[in-house]
Amino acid sequence: MSANIFYMQEVTKHMVNVQSEFLTFHDKIKLSEENQELRNKRDILLNKLRKNISDEAASFTTFNQGSYAMGTGIKPDDGDFDIDVGLKFDIDHDDYSDPVQVKQWVKDALDGHTKSVKIRRSCVTVTYQKDKEPIYHVDFAVYAANNADKQMYIAKGKEYSTEEYRIWQLSDPQELLNYLNSLYDDSDDRAQFRRVVRYMKKWKNQHFITSGNNAPTGIALTALACSYFTPYYSKDFLTNKKAYDDFKALKRLVNNIQNAFNLTWDSDDGCFYRTITQSLPVQPGNNLFEKMSNKQMNNFYNQISAMYSKLTEAEGKSKKSEVCQLMIDIFGEAFPAAVDRSYVGTSESA
Question: Most buried in the list 20, 98, 190, 253, measured by CB within 10 Å?
Answer without folding.
Answer: 253
